[in-house]
Specification:
Layout (H helix, E strand, L loop, with lengths): L6 H24 L6 H15 L2 E2 L14 E5 L2 E3 L13 E10 L2 E10 L5 H23 L3 H14 L3 E2 L5 E3 L6 E5 L19 E4 L2 E3 L5 E3 L6 E3 L5 E3 L2 E6 L2 E4 L9
Antiparallel strand pairs: 1-4, 2-4, 3-12, 4-5, 6-10, 7-8, 7-9, 9-14, 10-13, 11-12, 14-15
Helix pairs in contact: 1-2, 3-4
Length: 259
């Protein structure tokens, strides 16, 4: 069941969203060849602790509970990469996903950062990822059904020669990180029963993941990290969006911004 949020509740969610945006700025400012993903995760964990925010990711149940406050996924890693001793190198793509709860309300966002100069394929892939998340905001304002937005996103990615990941989807968000509805980044007839109206009070964490090659994936032995089956790179972009009577607000505004 979809729970619509009041203006007051959206205002409270904005606080969490802006802490997530600040966490991303901390990561962005530290990214450089020679830095480890574990060092970046530690900086975000320290920030959340200082702000009195509860990390959403650490301890998430699984075969092995997720051990970090961020997901750090490099190059062919799509999502749920575990931070550690990997040393960033020139030309890497680093997808960073994190979220927190403040005063009972959640924020969640992801961005793919460029480590130095990228090759042509990675550059095009990152550009299309940014275009896809920008399309979402415009689509939420112009359309009445989520399927209309997802169809436009599919067309954008297909035309570029890339593929949208189908097995990982966005989600409603509020007091919990994952609420109804599920928000697939693609659409076909098999998903008609999952479609929903875009209406004021809807708050969604929408997160297209785009692969340079096949959309299929496998999970590594760590039980978390999803990687492309063909070893080609992937990107991941996510914002928390609130639909209001006056338009669409990005509660995690500032994630990915260069200032």
């Amino acid at each position: 069941m979809i729970t619509l949020k009041s203006r007051r509740e959206i205002r409270l969610m904005r606080q969490a969203g802006q802490l997530v945006a600040q966490a991303h700025r901390i990561v962005r400012d530290r990214i450089a060849p020679g830095v480890t993903t574990g060092e970046l995760d530690a900086a975000v964990e320290a920030f959340f602790e200082e702000e009195g925010a509860t990390p959403l990711f650490k301890g998430v149940p699984g075969t092995v509970p997720f051990p970090a406050v961020t997901c750090m996924s490099v190059n062919e890693q799509i999502v749920h990469g575990i931070p550690g001793d990997y040393v960033l190198q020139e030309g890497d793509l680093l997808s960073v996903d994190t979220g927190c709860r403040v005063n009972g309300w959640c924020g969640d966002a992801a961005w793919t950062y460029r480590v130095g100069q990228l090759d042509d394929e990675k550059t095009r892939l990152a550009d299309i990822g940014i275009a896809s998340i920008e399309l979402v905001r415009n689509g939420l304002e112009r359309h009445q059904k989520w399927s209309q937005v997802a169809t436009e996103m599919m067309a954008l990615v297909d035309e570029a020669g890339f593929s949208l990941v189908r097995d990982f989807v966005g989600h409603g968000i509020g007091r919990e990180m994952h609420e109804s509805p599920q928000v697939p980044n693609y659409f076909d007839k098999r998903l008609q029963h999952t479609d929903f109206d875009i209406r004021p009070g809807l708050v969604l964490a929408i997160e297209p993941m785009i692969n340079a090659g096949s959309y299929r994936f496998r999970v590594l032995d760590d039980h978390w990290t999803a990687v492309t089956v063909d070893g080609r790179p992937s990107v991941h972009f996510e914002h928390t969006f609130a639909v209001t009577p006056t338009g669409v607000e990005v509660l995690t505004q500032g994630v990915g911004a260069s200032d």
